[in-house]
Write a structure and sequence with these properties.
This protein has 893 residues and is α+β, with helices and mostly antiparallel strands.
Length: 893
Amino acid sequence: MATFRHHLKNGMTVIVREDRRNPVAAFFMFYRVGARFERPGATGVTHWVEHMMFKGTPRFPRGTLDRLVSTNGGVWNGFTTEDLTAFFETLPADCVELGLEVEADRMVNCLFGPAEVAAERGVILAEREGAENDPIFWLDEAVTAAAFRVHPYRLGVIGAREDLVALTRDELFAYYQRHYVPENAVAVLVGDIDIGWAAALLDKHFEAIPGGPGDRPEPPSEPRQDGERRLTVGRPGPTNYVLFAYHTPPAGHPRTAALLVLDAVMSGGKSPLGWGGRTMGRSSRLYRALIQARLATTVSTRIGLTADPGLLTILATARAGVGAAALERVIAVEVDRLMAEEISAAELDRAKKQVRAQLAYSAEGVEQQAMSLGLTEVLSCPSLADELPELVLGVTAAEVRAAAGEFLGPDNRTVGRFVPDAEGRGEGTLGQAAASRGRAHRVKAGGAFFFRTPGAGGRTLGPRLPGPGTSLPGPETIARRRLANGVTALAVTRPGLELAVTRATLTMAYPDEAEARAGFRALAAEGALHGNTRRSFERQNEETDALGLSLSASSDPDTITLSTASLGEDFSKALSLLTDAVLAPTFPEAEVDKLKGQFLTRLSEGEADSRRLAARLFHETAYPAGHPYRYPALGHPSDVGRAEAVALRRFYRARLVPDRLILAAVGGLDREAMLDALGEAFGRFTPPDAPAPMTAAPAIGRPDRPAVVHRHLAGKSQTEILLGLPTISRSDTDYHPFVLADLIVGRLGLGGRLGDDLRDRRGLAYRVGSSFAPRLGPAPWSVSAGVSPSSVGAAVITIVGHLRRLVSEPVGPDELDTAVGYLTGVLPLSIETAEGLAKALVEMELYQLDPDYLQLIPSTYAGITADQVLAAVQRHLDPDRHILVVAGPADDV
């Protein structure tokens, strides 16, 4: 793919890359300003300025841009890291100039109105409170603050609470004027565009913006660490966590590739570029030493690319009953091994293949490509975006050991333990007050997303409605075959795609979740990956990691799905692994016992997580006993504890019915060849002797009046609100009008009408929005919000008020146009990746949709009226019979 780099006269860098595979484009504006330029007393200012740059300009008052982007079928957002701030718009390619208009305008014309600053202060404080609900937040913040004594990386991105309370409008505006200038900016445009046209467009919109000094003060260098640092965080929490942190060199350092391979050896390959990637690493050293040894439920390592020396981290979650000291000892032993001896040739090859595969996965979409090009440019290592795969290929075992010896010594590490403490105190611990100046999440996303209240602007507003069939898969491109045994197989060819994704989805029988076996779906899905008649779990892990292949499982109330993602060259091997996992899992007792232990720990974490707890309580209130939607995905501790391998085998085999299995493959290979391979792999198996019956689920009802469930959680800063009802299935004739209503009230933008009111106008919440996903049965519809305990009452009244408005008056024509334009234009974005398209193919078959369904979406939504939307919500949403769950530090409404 051709790439163009250029510097405008005002100092701005522009990068353009053609990718003609899909009719979409992504425009990113990166600024070389992040938390590394901040100082104590003004922490969080960069992140706050990012939020304010979504608040409007004289040309585009607040909300206008949200509607413009949505109406044109796009998405937009922004994020802040220690090193940079970025904004992006991903749109249909013929609308991408809108992104350039947006960024050119707000580079110089953002308003920072006092009332907007005041409202956003509440939003950002709510964002911090939401992060504080996670025990790992406190541990990460404290470890980073201890690891860095001088460098601003110690301060975090979101900022300390006292600074967020004290920062003024004038300080924010001065920071914006000083840093957000062409000299500090990198514009990246990737997609289905012509390079010459794109370069001229960038000149048109940005060349005339006056240059500036590009204030980038160099932060102080962090002195070399000269001894291990240790700390303990004692707070209420579900289990023990351990976090190791080692100082590592900046992006572009000669050791970067070796460190990525080292990271893969420890816990599996990852890509430091873009947002893509797949799950792998079950043959890694830490997975074997901690998870397979029944000491931990999760373990991960991370190397971030940073402008200055950063951190390599190792984070482990202790299995229930395992102490932090046990995890720490094992991690230290594995790190010492990496320093003491070279890894084997086989291990080296596995690690390199994983990293190279992850880099390919993370470069699949235009957003990911733009992200990697801009990130490496800002971090002063632009060649890394394209050269990293070859650099990884050239890494030797000696270089991996040398990197371990240079950076993983005990004098260079900081070790933190999170130890559950009901009082949040303890001798030698770091409690909440002491940790409050530490570090927030490494990347904080903020700003707007899609839509807020309409306003006047400088561009014509109206729905963008391409004709049926515009660049969308349909009968001409989707190959479908019904195998002799009843299995349905679908395939689509994506020319030039280096990847291949295959999904195998089993439809569940409705009695599949009952009180005595809640969690069996999830146990069966994950258990199917833990060994089969041809491969043990260990052998399977070695094969998948050697191929850089992801073999994963998921489940929902209606289905179990196993899937693979691989490089196209490995499609046949990936399909073999998937076939054995789907058709011949053995559910070994030892592996089932390990899974049960992991589930029990995850359940404990869920009970201490306000969002997951609220969701469980909502479903238990909304659905009757015996209904599969009632029970938590991971089950109840008592059910999981009693589950036996033999019962799990019977459960799965009774549901392995050919005519309930849907296969979908998407890749650069010929579609008929992929169908032939699917038919050869899955065309011969037969139904079980006693298949699980497909019977009707129990009928659902609604409360006669609002049902309110309260749950108090110790040690939380924020309260979770969840309000909703069970509604309709995917097959209901009201489905499409209901989707439009859901978008308008709670999903366009940072929560549609609700986000505009609760977040933008009142500043009560950082996160608010509605949720509605297609289901075979009556799907739940709900609104969730994280708010301060003192704001619970006001938030609930506001949510119910918007629900009353939704069922009492038609949505406005502008709102309807925006929702229709969004659903029409965003469709190509949702199926741009092989994973997205494969999922769409399965859903089309699962819900018995016509082969041209995707092509007809524009006309389907364009034909819906405001009266139809109103009638749909009046039939299915009742403000006076809702279910409300409140979980957090306060439980009074």
